[in-house]
Amino acid sequence: MSDSQATHETESTGIETSTSSTTTAGETDERIDDSWLEYEFEGEPKLSVQNLDVYYGDEHALKDVSMDIPEQSVTALIGPSGCGKSTFLRSLNRMNDRIKSARVEGTVELDGRDIYQDGTNLVELRKRVGMVFQSPNPFPKSIKDNVSYGPRKHGDINTGLLASLLGKDESDKEAELVERSLTQAALWDEVSDRLDDNALGLSGGQQQRLCIARALATDPEVLLMDEPASALDPIATSKIEDLIEELAEEYTVVVVTHNMQQAARISDQTAVFLTGGELVEYDDTEKIFESPESQRVEDYITGKFG
Ligand SMILES: Nc1ncnc2c1ncn2[C@@H]1O[C@H](COP(=O)(O)OP(=O)(O)OP(=O)(O)O)[C@@H](O)[C@H]1O
């Protein structure tokens, strides 16, 4: 034990834990206490991650991560660059499957069913667990087509004879879907008179809300967002933040952010990953930002490293 080590008692458990001071890089011999990861909430988890390890070739990018994510809330994932936040996010809808060198071990349950079990329909999974990326990436198509692209591709907009027999033609259904999704993404009022214009003519912030509308159009239950506002100016960022909070009334939102003030503003619970791919602490956002258990988390949050 070094002189700089401190002992403290956790409020919630009364368990004594040892912590040590950190270096500027946040390296330390502090051991993760399991009680720092026990986040309790009412109801069943929407997503339950157990003993998740992810490797890229020989690199062990995520180490034995377990956490339950409650539904209809915002969960923020924070931590320094390279600690595995995006890797974790991509594990929740098996986007890591698309990376050749990636290998995943452990389980991720969506409503109690392991998404990694044989026979999982990946198209169906990614419809239920949608994703929005860091840089807005609309298709070079009209605003309308960007929104209806997914449901069309999956055959979810009824077409032809069957639809007209049911009383609605294809274009009515499509118009309804486009309006609903753009309204949910807080973009409808800005684009309703130019739905046939090319999406690439929109501002960055509008393009990002269009990408959110596109993700919502497939009727997901979970929305994964990887730094959705990092490429945007402060006004566009604030619109996305407001939108995320609104979406959480209906959807389960998991968001990676580098911006700690943003995590504090918009999330209900926060998971802190630190260098080496370890989840160090997971709790109510207020608790994480006001009185974290881990010395390393406190150092990270107060800007001492990272
Ligand atoms: N496609 C990939 N192929 C190989 N290694 C990867 C790949 N993606 C990520 N890694 C490695 O896995 C580790 C975790 O990366 P990841 O992108 O998940 O971290 P992050 O916390 O999201 O970082 P950042 O905040 O910089 O986006 C890093 O060491 C990274 O180099």
TrEMBL record:
Keyword Nucleotide-binding (UniProt): yes
Comp. bias (Basic and acidic residues): 1-11
Gene3D superfamilies (alphabetical): P-loop containing nucleotide triphosphate hydrolases (3.40.50.300)
Region annotated Disordered, chain positions: 1-34
SUPFAM superfamilies found in the cross-reference section: P-loop containing nucleoside triphosphate hydrolases
Protein name: ABC-type phosphate transport system, ATPase component
GO molecular function terms listed in the Swiss-Prot or TrEMBL record: ATP binding; ATP hydrolysis activity; phosphate transmembrane transporter activity
Keyword Transport set for record: yes
Keywords: ATP-binding, Cell membrane, Membrane, Nucleotide-binding, Transport
Compositional bias segments (type: Low complexity): 12-26
Family annotation (InterPro entries): AAA+_ATPase (IPR003593), ABC_transporter-like_ATP-bd (IPR003439), ABC_transporter-like_CS (IPR017871), P-loop_NTPase (IPR027417), PstB-like (IPR005670)
Any one GO cellular component localisation term in the record: membrane
UniProt xrefs under Pfam families: ABC_tran
Organism: Halapricum desulfuricans
